[in-house]
Specification:
Structural class: alpha/beta
Number of domains: 2
Largest sheet: 6 strands, parallel
CATH architecture of the largest domain: Up-down Bundle
CATH topology of the largest domain: Dehydroquinate synthase-like, alpha domain
Bound molecules: 5,6-dihydroxy-NADP, zinc ion
Number of helices: 15
Shape: globular
Helix content: 40-55%
CATH superfamily of the largest domain: Dehydroquinate synthase-like - alpha domain
Number of strands: 8
CATH class of the largest domain: Mainly Alpha
Distance between the termini: 32 Å
């Protein structure tokens, strides 16, 4: 087990009616005037925004609204949010939505406190040193941004989608009511299941680590998500299944399932350039296509671990004479599961053709001059193109 720091300062208020506590919890953190940040309208239609506003009013807090966050959240709205904060003199930012809304809120909170253009630090410049207090009311179990230390924003002019990792990204408080996810579509539920699984799997696959406890936490989470996912897709209002998915979303990306590992998040890096360049691609859908292809490209370098996952999570029988067969069987079972829950599993299903490859791979590799982060050998342009080609067919 490698040395690690486990730091998850976010207070989680979980369960039915959780959002009703927003006013009191924000007030206890010194809030007086709140920026309520949300997306394209789902929280208005569901009545959630009204409930949050009522809770703030009850606690004597004033607020200003800024909606309109699009999936794969855009830099221009972050800039607008910072101007709104200045004009309205807010002292707390509350995101009401999914990962895109939360990430936009994080970027606004940092930019408002720093007095700098947010793209400076999102694109890899000097990281922010301070932020504005912020929290979340989660409506979609997926990105894990409600507890994570990351924030992903797209510059819609250059199509660069970039992530900022800093402990400042941890929300002070997150309100998680599984009922607020009942209205999530089957497609977005599927995207969320894949993304939640990926945050654990990208941490799980690291060579040369002996971390039995972390492995078993990861495998337990994956099994629970696998089963709850099937139920939530079939019965969107099943509270227990939605509750499992929601809590798993948070635990999968708050670092718990990676303690003691050295991880690189290779497939996330590959995917972000697809959804950055092709706005119609949902993050979870991109991962659903790319992860099995990546796994097929690298599993021979870590047969033991891929076979372990196949047996413990995907119900495969261990072939002790040919463990590599078990490993590959597990990758196929995972891909079959993604297909079963309605996710695309090939480039064609994602709306991508070979003619699109060059632009995406050039973004990822800075025109072939850089490699993507990887813990299974160098991930240069040629190797990434090989993964794209594997993804043209089911593995
Ligand atoms: O905008 P509204 O109207 O709210 O609709 C959204 C949106 O169209 C809808 N939705 C959300 N909650 C709903 C709902 N519809 C009905 N009922 C509800 N309760 O779902 C659509 C997708 O929302 P979005 O927030 O984009 O999805 P998700 O939570 O999957 O977030 C994806 C973004 O997070 C980033 C991704 O790259 C992507 O940009 N990620 C952020 C991470 C982080 N900060 O830690 C880590 C992840 O790996 C990921 O990269
Ligand atoms: Zn993700």
């Amino acid at each position: 087990m490698l040395n690690f720091i486990y730091n998850t300062p976010t207070k989680v208020v979980f369960g039915r009616g959780a959002e009703a506590q927003a006013g009191a919890e924000l007030k206890a953190r010194g809030a007086t005037r709140v920026l309520l940040h949300f997306g394209g309208g789902s929280v208005r239609r569901s009545g959630l925004l009204d409930k949050v506003e009522a809770s703030l009013r009850e606690a004597g807090l004033s607020y200003v609204e800024l909606g309109g966050v699009a999936p794969n959240p855009k830099l221009s709205l972050v800039r607008e949010g910072i101007e709104t904060c200045k004009r309205e003199k807010v002292d707390f930012v509350l995101a009401v939505g999914g990962g895109s809304v939360i990430d936009s809120a994080k970027a606004i909170a940092h930019g408002y406190a720093e007095g700098r253009d947010p793209w400076e630090y999102i694109s890899g410049g000097e990281p922010p040193k301070k932020t504005t207090p912020f929290g979340t009311v989660l409506t979609l179990a997926a990105a894990g941004s409600e507890m994570s230390n990351s924030c992903v924003i797209t510059d819609e002019v250059t199509h660069l989608k970039r992530g900022l990792t800093t402990e400042l990204n941890r929300p002070l408080v997150s309100f998680l009511n599984p009922e607020n996810t009942f209205t999530v579509s089957k497609f977005q539920t599927g995207c969320g299941i894949v993304d939640t699984m990926m945050h654990t799997m990208e941490r799980y696959f690291t060579p040369d680590t002996d971390t039995d406890l972390t492995d078993r936490l990861a495998e337990g989470l994956l099994v629970a998500v696998r089963d709850a996912g099937r139920i939530a897709i079939a019965h969107p209002e099943d509270y227990e299944a939605r509750a499992t998915l929601m809590w798993a979303s948070s635990l999968s990306h708050n670092t718990l399932t990676g303690c003691g590992h050295n991880h690189t998040f290779t497939v996330h890096k590959l995917e972000h350039d697809f959804s950055g360049l092709h706005d119609h691609i949902a993050h979870g859908a991109g991962l659903s296509v790319l992860f099995p292809a990546w796994a097929k490209a690298v599993y021979r370098q870590d047969v033991r671990k891929f076979a372990q996952l196949a047996v413990r999570v995907w119900g495969c029988e261990m072939d002790f004479d040919h463990p590599e067969r078990t490993a590959l069987q597990g990758i196929r079972a995972m891909q079959a599961y993604f297909g079963e829950i309605g996710m695309p599993v090939t480039m064609g299903g994602l709306g991508i053709t070979p003619a699109d490859y060059e632009d995406v791979v050039n973004l990822t590799t800075a025109n072939g001059t850089k490699c993507a982060p990887s813990c299974y050998g160098e991930m240069d342009k040629a190797r990434i193109l090989e993964i794209y080609r594997i993804a043209e067919q089911p593995v």
